[in-house]
Specification:
The protein has about 110 residues and is mostly helical. The chain has 4 helices and no strands. About 5% of the residues are buried.
Length: about 110
Amino acid sequence: MTQRVASRMQMIGFAGVVSALLAASDKTILQGPTLYIALLVLALAVLWLRGFNRAIQRIGRHLRDVETRINVLAGQAWGTPDALLTWETRAQNGRLRVRGLPGWVGRLGGWYLP
């Protein structure tokens, strides 16, 4: 898990460096293709990261379903009204409470999906 996160961040860093080098390689003029290529590389890297974030959110949705199922079964088996598993649900509820610019960026980037 840690290696996946590190590899994603390295890929975004690499795309940022490539974009910066392309943008600064010649003269920064709007007629030259290097600035547009730099922006394209950066946009593709952000879309790639967004895809990973959305995949992680889908896994989180599945974990919340598993939590609910286990809590229902535990309630039926032991008659306990308290939920046994709540970690992923609490984490998602915390993500959804983020407002303002951080919340907007998080939702756009695929970190906070409803």
